[in-house]
Amino acid sequence: MERVDVVAASAFYPPVMEALTATYAVHALYQAADRAAFFAPLKDKVRGIATFTDKVDAGLMDTLPRLEIVASMSIGLDHIDLAAAKARGIRVTNTPDVLTDDVADLAIGLMVAVSRRLVVADRYVRDGGWLKGSMPLQNRLGGTKLGVLGMGRIGAAIAKRAAAMNMTVVYHGPRPKPEVPYRFYPDLAAMAADVDYLVVAVPGGPATRHLVDARIIAALGAKGAIINIARGSVIDQAALIGALADHKLAGAGLDVFEDEPRVPEALTRLDSAVLTPHVGSATHATRLAMGRLMLDNLAAHFAGKPLLTPVA
Ligand code: DGY
User: Fold this and answer.
1) Which of 12, 142, 230, 305 has its CB 3.0 to 4.6 Å from that of 16, i.e. a possible disulfide?
2) Ligand 1 probe mutation, 12, 53, 228, 279, most atoms within 8 A of CB
């Protein structure tokens, strides 16, 4: 049987790539030096795109008139033009749930690293600082208040972990969730003013761009810290760096940035910031599960069955 043509917009985790190429005629867009030459023989054949975080915009969709599905190996969808897909009748799938625990673990890890200055402590040992004296005391997490911005699947998993660590959890989002046992703040600035830690767990994209701006950072104040495991676009990064540099914010734990993989040098110089390279879901087991789900969505689509995790 002839294999379905699928464009791989991204380089995937090798076992996922192997499974993809075992089933489909895969065309690696991420390796193409000349896009026009790449698409010329393919444009009337390709029925699917598999992507990780690489952009799938209206132009790419129009290049492939037979495109039926964009399957993303991610929960975030800010790299896909969903409105363009909808207008063209192209289905879109993502990979929710399977990464929730890993991303929540990293959020807690960053919060501990920020409050206890773990990166500074590690350097203190390696550089022989300990031989000269004890490291200065740091701040506890238990007994403090955490504001979760975005009580979705990942926000709820972070909240559960934080509550188990004796933090008081509150949240802000578009609407209160009656099933959630935490206090809801209809106003983000009011919540920021009331908490010690603000964890960002909302989707990226235009609707949430710079939701955490200079005003919210100022409301959090000099004793507050921000953790972001969502998307860099949600925080006004320049305002965040300014507040950290001026000691108007105590710390930040950031897994995501405005212009990844570029991170402003000013941020890398700040001891109050703990920085990780967008690794929320980057474990072997979870990347395999994400890949499996992406492949299962593609298989369901091409078999004419219901999609497992459709978004459009
Ligand atoms: C996601 O799944 O959206 C993660 O951020 C990986 O990019």
Assistant:
1) 12
2) 53
